[in-house]
């Protein structure tokens, strides 16, 4: 059942690559493509707080569109402007951006879980994201597909316990090793909210969904299987089942488990169409590990963008050759290995896109 009538899609490269198809060239987008390296983003940020933008659909739409306008014809996807930490907010936690994320009252012990909302109505708590998605789909006029996203339970759980970024992960590691059962229960509670949130994003108009497990690399392979993988599988299984049951479009799912290259082979059967890669694995090696079972996304070191045009061109050329199948682009979405950082020159980003178009083209 189509809930909205959206303009038809003119560029489906991203969706075809995610399904494993051969494409005339690799689709390309950049994690954090709407962010502080763009002067037009910094201009909006001068007069609006970060979460105020997330909660104001008109502003979120405007910022989502900024890189699409600037790099029109070069970028093949948009990603809704929001943050993974809107889920802990929906569960009842306060999150500030000061300038990194900080939680005034993190979860110190399992007793603190009692402070979380017992029922999370995503339409009520996160309706502003759905509204921004629907408005963005209209405003995009079919130029490129719109990606929706959420944080992975392990990464969200870590933020909720650490109260922000961490170098040692002491608090969250204390939780999983001292309170493993309570940890697993909370991880599944978060996963259930993620399922509702992702299904709601598809209902609102998202055309591909990405799950960000930014802190996956902090776990040993054994502990990843205990504390991250089950909730990732729970999400893929239940999102697919709900989309089918509610007659919603079957939507490609991407998992970006940063630092979890140790789990790459086993993640091919976690229920995701595409696995995102950081830059610490060689593209050809990743291809060997996944045995053609999933599409791949990534993975240039974002800091190459500081190296100037020659460095960018040779890194892109190498990356395109490394991901190529039978001499051309197939089942690959070009991207960076993590989010773009604030000091990058937008003109160097344009060059990155141009190089991907050139070197990933099927001849
Ligand atoms: C861990 C994580 C967060 N948020 C996100 C992740 C997963 C991806 C990753 O590992 O980077 C995901 C995210 N955050 C943001 C998006 C928007 C869409 C996009 O353009 O990619 C997405 C997909 C906007 C943002 N989220 C944030 C900014 C910058 C904040 C600002 O404008 O002051 C943006 C554009 C803030 C944020 N939000 C978060 C951090 C750690 C920070 C501060 C560090 C930083 O600034 O890069 C949590």
Can you describe what's shown?
- The protein has about 375 residues and is α/β, with parallel strands linked by helices.
- The protein contains 16 helices and nine strands.
- It has helices at about 15-20, 40-45, 50-55, 55-70, 85-90, 120-125, 125-140, 155-160, 170-180, 180-205, 220-225, 230-245, 265, 285-290, 310-325, 345-360, and strands spanning about 80, 95, 100, 145-150, 210-215, 255, 275, 295-300, 330-335.
- The strands form two sheets. Strands 1-4-5-6-7-8-9 form a seven-stranded parallel β-sheet. It has a two-stranded antiparallel sheet with strand order 2-3.
- The radius of gyration is 19 Å and the shape is globular.
- The model has no long low-confidence stretch (mean pLDDT about 95).
- Coproporphyrinogen III binds near residues 32, 34, 50 and 212.
- GO terms for molecular function: uroporphyrinogen decarboxylase activity.
- Catalyzes the decarboxylation of four acetate groups of uroporphyrinogen-III to yield coproporphyrinogen-III.
- Its EC number is 4.1.1.37.
Q: Mean pLDDT, nearest integer? A: 97
Spans where pLDDT lies below 50 across 5 or more residues: none
C-alpha-based Rg, rounded: 19 Å
Approximately what portion of the residues adopt beta-strand conformation?
5-15%
User: What is the topology, as strand order, of the major beta sheet?
Assistant: 1-4-5-6-7-8-9
Please tally the helical runs, counting DSSP H or I stretches of 4 or more residues: 16
Listed once per kind, the bound small molecules are:
coproporphyrinogen III
- Shape assignment: globular
Quote the distance from N terminus to C terminus.
40 Å
Could you state the order of secondary-structure elements as H and E? Answer: HHHHEHEEHHEHHHEHHEHEHEHEH
> Total number of β-strand segments?
9
Percentage of residues in helical conformation? 40-55%
Instruction: Report the major sheet.
Output: 7 strands, parallel
Indicate the structural class: alpha/beta
């Amino acid at each position: 059942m189509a809930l909205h009538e959206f303009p038809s899609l003119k560029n489906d490269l991203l969706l075809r690559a995610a399904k494993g198809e051969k494409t005339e060239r690799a689709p390309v987008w950049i994690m954090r493509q709407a962010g502080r390296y763009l002067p037009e983003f910094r201009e909006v940020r001068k007069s609006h707080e970060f979460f105020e933008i997330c909660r104001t659909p008109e502003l979120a739409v405007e910022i989502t569109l900024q890189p699409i306008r600037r790099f029109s014809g070069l970028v093949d996807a948009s990603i809704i402007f929001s943050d993974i930490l809107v889920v802990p907010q929906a569960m009842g936690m306060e999150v500030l951006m000061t300038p990194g994320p900080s939680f005034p009252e993190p979860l110190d012990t399992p007793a603190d879980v009692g402070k979380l909302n017992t029922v999370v109505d995503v339409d009520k708590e996160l309706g502003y994201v759905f509204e921004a998605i629907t408005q963005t789909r209209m405003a995009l006029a079919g130029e490129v597909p719109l990606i929706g996203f959420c944080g992975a339970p392990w990464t969200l759980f870590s933020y909720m316990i650490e109260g922000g970024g961490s170098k040692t992960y002491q608090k969250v590691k204390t939780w999983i090793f001292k309170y493993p059962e309570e940890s697993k229960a909370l991880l599944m509670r978060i996963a259930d909210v993620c399922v509702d949130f992702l299904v709601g994003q598809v209902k609102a108009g998202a055309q591909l969904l990405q799950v960000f497990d930014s802190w996956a690399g902090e776990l040993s392979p054994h502990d990843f299987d205990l504390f991250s993988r089950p909730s990732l599988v729970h999400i893929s299984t239940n999102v697919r089942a709900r989309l089918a049951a509610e007659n919603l479009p079957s939507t490609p799912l991407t998992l970006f488990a940063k630092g979890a290259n140790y789990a790459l082979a086993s993640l091919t059967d976690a229920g995701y169409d595409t696995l995102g890669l950081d830059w610490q694995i060689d593209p050809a090696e990743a291809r060997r590990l996944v045995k053609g079972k999933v599409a791949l996304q990534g993975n240039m070191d974002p800091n190459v963008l500081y190296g100037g045009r020659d460095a960018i061109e040779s890194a892109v050329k190498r990356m395109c050759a490394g991901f190529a199948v039978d001499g051309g682009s197939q089942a690959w979405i070009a991207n960076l290995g993590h989010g773009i950082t604030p000091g990058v020159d937008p003109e160097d980003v344009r060059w990155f896109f141009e190089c991907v178009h050139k070197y990933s083209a099927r001849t």
